Amino acid sequence: MTAGDAPTPREAMARLTAALTDVVSAHRAAGGGLLRFMEVCGTHTVSAFRSGVHSLMPEGVKLISGPGCPVCVTAQRYIDALIDLGRREGVTLTTYGDMLRVTGAGGSLELARSEGADVRVVTSSMEAVEIAAAEPDREVVFAAVGFETTAPATAAAVLAAQTRGLGNFTVLAAHKLVLPAMQTLLADPNLAVDGFLCPGHVSVIIGAEAYRPVVDSHGSPCVIAGFEALQMMEGILHLARQVVAGEARLENLYPTVVGSQPQPHAMALIERVFQPGDSAWRALGVMPESGLDLRPELAPFDALARFDIVLGEDDDPPGCRCGEVITGQCEPLDCGLFGTACTPVTPIGPCMVSSEGTCQAWFKYRRHEMRKGAGA
Fold first, then answer.
1. What is the CATH number of the domain that holds 16?
2. How many structural domains compose the chain?
3. Per-residue pLDDT averaged across 114-126, rounded?
C-alpha cells in the first residue's frame, strides 16, 4: 500500500485488532479484569459469528450475546396463545417463518399446521391484511413479534385494516422495547456487563439519544455500530477505550443510518396504534412498560380480546438454557442439550430455532469447539 491509499479490509481489520490488543494489554497490566461487552441485536450476533469477530478478540475481552433475538425473547405464554389460535376452527394464523418451529406447551405452530391448522408464513404484516381482505369468511390473526424495528409495520397493518373495514383481522401483540431489557440486565448484580454494542436496526427507529439513560443513570458505555465485521470491531474498540479511561459515553459510529433523534414517521405510527404495557420476556420475566399494547380505541383488532384468551404461565422445555444464553449468563456449550438433542434440525429452544438465535449461530460457526472440548 502506498502513501495515501486506503487500507484494504484485511489491513483495516489488522489495525483495529492491534489497537484493541494494545488497549486491553495496558488495561490488564494495570490490574484490570476481563472486559465483557454485550451485543443486543440478533443481526450483530450472527454477523459476529459468521465473520469470525469472536476469534479476533484478544485475551481479556469477551463479546456476549444479549436479548436481541425477537423470537428468542418471546415468552412461551405467547407461543402457547398462538398455537391455541392456530388450532381454532375458522382461524388463519399468519406469522413470520422463524416462529413456526418454536415449541410451546402444546407443540409448535409447525406441528399444528401438520395436524390441519391453517397457519401461513408471511413476509410482511400487510400480506396478512391482504389475506383478510381476500378471505372475509376467515378470522385472520397476525403474530406481531419483534422490537421497535417491526412495530411500525404492524401499526400500519392495523390502520390499513381499520381503514378498509376488515373486521376479520386482528393481531396478537407481542412487540418488545429494547431499553427496558438493557436496564433490567444492568440491575442484575450477578451479570457483569462493561458496555453495550447497541442494535443498529432498532436505533434507526428510536434514535441514538434513546440510550442516554443507560449511560447517564447506569454509567454503562453505549456504542452504536453497523453490522459489518469492521464496524463491529471498531465499536468494540471504542467500548474498550471508554472503560479503560474510566468513561461512560454514548457514541454513534453509524451516523449515516442512525440519527440522534427518533425516526418521526415510524414513531408516529407506533404511538398512534400502541401504548407501552407490561410484557413477559423469556428469562427476564414480566417487565413494566417493556412491550407494546394496542390502544383501547383499537381493541377490536386485539386477538387476545377477540378470542377471549388469557395468557398463561411459562413452562420452558426441561434442560433448555435459552433464557440464560440470551441474558449472558452462559454460552450454548454450557447447555447439555446443545448439539445433541438440540440442533437446527431438531430444535428444542428458540435460540436454536431462530436464524438470529445465539445457539443456531454457535452451531453453524463454532460447533468445532464442542468437538475440540470433548478432547476425544
1. 3.40.50.11750
2. 2
3. 97
Is residue 211 domain-shared with residue 273, that is, in the same domain? no
Kindly state whether residues 42 and 85 are assigned to the same domain: no
Residues 127 and 197 occupy one common structural domain: no
Does the predicted model carry a pTM greater than 0.90?
Answer: yes
- Same domain? For 280 and 166 the reply is yes
Q: What is the CATH number of the domain that holds 300?
A: 3.40.50.11740
- Output the CA angle 90-91-96, nearest 5 degrees: 155
Alpha-carbon gap, residue 263 to 244, rounded angstroms: 33
What's residue 366's pLDDT? 82
Lowest mean pLDDT among 26-30, 113-117, 186-190: 186-190
Instruction: Quote the pLDDT of residue 175.
Output: 97
d(CA 316, CA 104) in angstroms, rounded, equals 8
Q: What is the number of residues in the chain?
A: 376
